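Q: Convert this sequence to C-alpha cells.
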Amino acid sequence: MELKKQLYGLCLEFVANRLKTIQQTIQELQESLTSETKSSAGDKHETGRAMIQLEREKTGQQLADTQKLNEVLSKMDMATTSKSIRLGSVVLTSKANYFIAISAGQFEVMNRQFFAISPNTPIGQLLLGKTVGNKVVFGEQSFEIEEVL
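A:
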C-alpha cells in the first residue's frame, strides 16, 4: 500500500507542477497582451495581439486538460486493492511495472522503475481487467502479470 501511495503522490506532484507552469504561462501572456502598445505599423500590432491571443487559447486548453488529470486522481480509491487491474492498480509484470492512473511518465520508487499510464492508453487498455498470471501481448512483446496491488 505504501508503494501505491508514493506513486499516487508523484502523480499529484506531476499535475501540480504542470498546473503551476501553465498558470505562469497564462500570466505572462496576459502581461504581454496588456503591454502590447499601438505601434506605427497597425497591422503588425494586430498580428502580435492575435498571436498572443491564439497562444492564450492553446494554454487555456492545456489548463483544462491538466485539470481533468486532477479530477481523475481525485476519483481514485487508494485504500482498496483489487485482484483485477483497474484505475489505481499497481501492476508488476515480467517486463515492466505500471501504475494505472494518468500518463505522467516514468518514476523510480523503492529502487524500481514504474510507468504511470492512463487506462485509455493502448497498454492501459490491454491491462484493464487482467489478473495475476495472465499473459499480455503488446506489439512484439509478450509478458506476464506477476502482481496486482
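Residues 12 and 74 are 9 Å apart (CA to CA).
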